[in-house]
Design brief:
2 copies of one chain form a homodimer. Chain A is an alpha/beta fold and 253 residues long. The first copy, chain A, is built from 10 helices and 8 strands. Chain A has 2 domains: 157 residues, SPOUT methyltransferase, trefoil knot domain (Alpha/beta knot), CATH 3.40.1280; 69 residues. The first copy, chain A, has a 7-stranded parallel sheet with strand order 3-2-1-6-4-7-5. In chain A, helix 5 crosses helix 6. Strand 5 of chain A pairs antiparallel with strand 8 of chain B.
């Protein structure tokens, strides 16, 4: 099993099957497949959990059930407890981002890890927190910090997932096209400038160089594909073919 | 209004009131308050949206309704479109993290920004995407990438919120206590070592320095508070007061 060092998501005494299902779905969105449940209120299996998983059925079907939190974490080396509110305890508090780093570092060191989530209404019991190495608190809007179970799982799972998935922060999607070469761009510029000249766009020779530079800068910013350059040639031709009266209108500018 | 440069969340033709409400809740979790809605399927106001907002009522009540996407973004300077699947378009694609940077940079430049979310079933229409400057795609598990509307709003909102909120990645929560001083730690070490000596813990003088160093390192790692140091002194006293038979058992090690 290649995911044996991925964090286990441990739901402690979850109340609603719907929330268990939604948590399973959020887990799978983030590539997490291992769920454990401590004393689910409505027993197990739970048809509502399966229905709410909408596609993440395998996570629900493979979920392991335990009688106590300590049994559910017995084989793990490093455990985080999620809490929304501050507890009166001396405990290390991590952001989800730092928790994700820590979980990946532990996995690299072949340690098994898990994240505890408490019941919907109350959160983790005070006695469960000392079983964990540290606490994760999601720093949402302090004026409105209530997150449901699945949203908590989603945010922490996403931070974990993002750290293992390399993706370019910004890229231009160009499908089957290729970026235009600079020769193609210059050909386009020249074609456009000739057409503009013909159309009376440049009112004075003095202004011309500035106007040319501005337009070239604008078109460079568009990062055209080769296909788009060809389309743009067509646009120039089409506009050049407009009626004389339209050209008349343009001339006075 | 101090939030006029915060991104507007624009729901285009949302179907279920529940999802509008859940999106409002996710927005407020991330400190986002400005919602616009284009042609809500079930009309407006929508009682289900208000019920599902569970506390984020103000966001729903202040939501503005528009007849078209272009009307909803008319006063904005920079608009992002969220899409899950790849479209056959030449378009810049951002991760939520880079999108968040971009939105904050635009706000600093006093630009007004917005993020478009499409209908639940289909996502944004192909004609809405060219109205946006760039696309944001949330890089979740490609094998299971379906996120509901509110989860999409939550993840993108969270990335935006995290970038403006400074929070220590890791800190030790110690409540009203203060960290122990090194003098207090050394006093504790000495007390413990004396008690261990007395209890026959150090079998040979040769091993003693290593055993002392190991135990001191262990206790240093616990980053004790002044209160905990005092408690630990009490622990030593209590253990030292155990019956002679318990001490006998320890001796042979």
């Amino acid at each position: 099993m290649s995911d044996q060092f991925d964090p286990v998501i441990i739901l402690v005494e979850p109340q609603l099957g719907e929330n268990i299902g939604a948590a399973a779905r959020a887990m799978l969105n983030c590539g997490l497949k291992r769920m454990r449940i401590v004393r689910p209120r409505d027993g197990w299996p739970n048809a509502r959990a399966l229905a709410a998983a909408s596609g993440a059925d395998a996570v629900i079907e493979a979920a392991e059930i335990f009688e106590s939190t300590s049994a559910a974490i017995a084989d793990l080396n490093y455990v985080l407890a999620t809490t929304a509110r501050q507890r009166d305890m001396v405990k290390t508090i991590l952001t989800p981002e730092v928790a994700a780093e820590e979980l990946h570092a532990r996995a690299s060191a072949l340690q098994r890890t898990g994240i505890l989530f408490g019941p919907e209404r109350t959160g983790l019991m005070n006695d469960d927190i000392p079983l964990a190495d540290a606490v994760v608190t999601i720093p949402v809007n302090p004026a409105f910090s209530s997150l449901n179970l699945a949203q908590g799982v989603l945010l922490i799972g996403y931070c974990w997932w993002r750290m293992q998935v390399q993706s370019e922060g910004r890229h231009l999607e160009i499908g089957g096209n290729r970026p235009a070469t600079k020769q193609e761009m210059v050909n386009l510029f020249v074609r456009l400038e000739e057409a503009l000249e013909e159309g009376g766009f440049y009112t004075t020779d003095q202004q011309r160089p500035t106007m040319v530079r501005n337009m070239r800068n604008l078109l460079q910013r568009a990062e055209m594909t080769e296909q788009e350059v060809r389309t743009f040639h067509g646009v120039i031709v089409a506009l050049n073919g407009t009626s004389g009266s339209a050209k008349e209108k343009r001339r006075p500018r």
